[in-house]
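Researcher: Batch entry, complex prediction.
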Amino acid sequence: MTRPRILAIESSCDETGVAVVVGGRRIEANQVASQVALHAATGGIVPEVAARQQLRWIVPTLEAALEQSGAGWDDLDAVAVTCGPGLIGSLLVGVNVAKALAVAHDLPLVGVNHIEGHIYANWLTETDAASPLPTEPAFPLLCLVVSGGHTQLVLMHDHGRYTLLGQTVDDAAGEAFDKVGRLLGLPYPGGPAISAAARDATPTTRFPRARTAGPYDFSFSGLKTAVLRAVEGYRARNEPIPVDGIAAAFEEAVVDALATKTLAAARDHGVAAVALGGGVAANDALRRSLDERLRAEGLSLTVPPAAWCTDNGAMIGAAAGFRFAAGDRADAALEAIPNLALPWLETA
Ligand code: KG4
Ligand code: ZN
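Model: Structure tokens for the complex:
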């Protein structure tokens, strides 16, 4: 597919991403301005600050992406943008810029759900225009989306057709990493910091796995409390806190919960393949464990490179490419919706 060539904008949280993606798959440009260093100072995201930074970085990131791709406005077929879920102030920056660009350059507008973007990161490739594209993920595809705001097991029947099989009943996986990172005195964001601390460490304990009502649901708040109790125990005994060992025990518990439920859902629904997406999908231990356990069942796992797991514009361009091809168009009434859900099919 040499078309559509889509300019895609992602501004739902603390990364400003702009990309040019062809045919929903081939990345021509992908620029991301991250606010991670800024939020590290406050130990987490301050929404007001995130929104102002989106405003600060959207134009330079857009210019960098256009320059990288070499595409002119006449070469583009549409402008796509994340319209939710996310932080309202951050979302509004991308949505308004996308609308202005679409009007100014007389291009169609496509609104993309951020979660759908994380799923479609599995379609992305950097293959050059002259070479054949790698094989696409096969349907029915089981998607584990694990980010700072969401933890969902999604059964994808075909492009744009989803059933929600399960989700977290409390904290998202990334949120748990970030909160436990803070508890352990590690820098923000907790995910990469815990992963680095845990790498060569032996777990200090085996934290209990949560029981949930739904077979494919997750719960991480009990685990977070268990880590807090462990830390308090060391403090009360005036013992040094074995940060690396606790990080390893925590990571092991999260990875085990995610892999166990994913495996059960894959088995029960007879899926063709499994795909991983979202910032926590950058976690090495999760990638390794899921791959091993699925392979033992004869199932294959698709995982985007780490840079496409965390928020970026290319994943929005991928989802938009398939939406555009299916005739999906937004207009000037496109709204930023903080709690936007995927359009779930009613039956499993
Ligand atoms: O998808 P994302 O960039 O933003 C949201 O949509 O939320 O995900 C960010 C989350 C953060 O909670 C961060 O700690 C987590 O992804 N994360 C990781 C790793 N890299 C990022 N968690 C575990 N291990 C990692 N290597
Ligand atoms: Zn995300």
